[in-house]
What does this fold into?
Amino acid sequence: MKNIIVLFLFLSLGNNTIAQTKKKKTTAKKETKEYFDIDKYKDWETDSTYTLYENDKFLKRENERVEINFSDKSIKTTESNIKYPYKLVKAFSNSTKRLFAEGIYFYQISIEIDKYYDENGKLIKEIDNDRLYKFSIKKLIKKFKKEYHVDLEDFTLGNWVLRRKPEDKKFKGRVFYEVRLVCEENEYKRRYYLIDGTTGKLLYKTFYYRREGRMPFDEYQRKLDNQEIPDEYLLTFEGKDYTRNEWDAHEKEVYKKTRG
It folds into this structure.
């Protein structure tokens, strides 16, 4: 938490007013004259949800949240809104208070463009976090709304995790999304989806329990190596693979047993 410079290398995309501007397209700034000003948050109150550290602040105002981390060389702010899974992260020089880096997160994912500035505020470096993913975050959100009736932009629905897996030599440059959702019927149960980051195709789906220590992506790799995944594969549950028809039959059988 204290090593702000190192942590900031993993920045991604976000928005200062997430509730109002989460869908607004960002524009690349060629220079910046933004400075850190603690008075910006003078009307905010302490967020008692978090344990306070000596050099950190956790503040809130209605649905807005900000975490401020201080170190010898820099100040990092992380702004968010409890309704949405976006975070805007900025890093300022501790000596000049000038902004030198910024980016946005969507869940644990760095998205869009990270920007870095010199001591004069001139844009000197950009990192495109979306360059490998032809199937965009926007398309992923649309897919889950349409096919699974899940709104990934609604952060109030549960403890969800969304990650990107960068290109892997084993898969010849393929990239993936991993989506883990808490099941309504059991807070310890997770639904896992592996999505192709280029085509958007569902590659692997399973259920698991949080404390099992299972690694679904590794399972997918093993099944792929052994050519165990059928063409009509739907999901894996309790160690068994199911096609859609097999899963429908399984659910009907379970329903009969539970109904007596």
Summary: Residues 4-128 form one domain. The chain has five helices and 14 strands. Residues 204 and 219 are 9 Å apart (CA to CA).
